[in-house]
Amino acid sequence: MSELDAAAVVTVGSDVVRGVPVLRVAGEIDTNVADEVRRALLPWLDGLRGPGVLDLTGVRFMASTGLSLLIEAARRRPAKLVLATAQRGVLRPLQLTGMSALLPTHPTVDLAVDAQLGAALAGMPSTA
Asked: Domain named STAS: which ranges (predicted)?
C-alpha cells in the first residue's frame, strides 16, 4: 500500500452539535493512519473548553494503535470526553481491554451529545 492509499483509509473532521464540539473520524485506524489521526485529535482535545464527543461511528476497524490513541485522549481529557460508536470493530476492542470503563460510549453522536449536555447541566450551580 502506498502512502497515498494509506492516507485515503481515514478521514477526520470537526463539527459542533448543539454547542458540543465533535471530532469525526471515519475509515480504519491502524498504524498507517495513526499519526494523521493523532495530529487532528490532540490539538482538538487541547482546545476543548468543555465536554467533547469523539465520533467513531464511521470507523470500521481499529487496531491497537487506535486503542493507544484513545488511551492518550482519555489521559488528556478524562472527564470531558465521550465516544460515539456502535461499530463492533471499535466496541469489541474497547470491551476486551477494559477501555470502555475509561471512556463512556454511546451508540450515536446525538446520544453522546445528550450525555455531555446532561453532565454539563448537572455540574452547574442551582439557580433556585
From this structure: 10-116
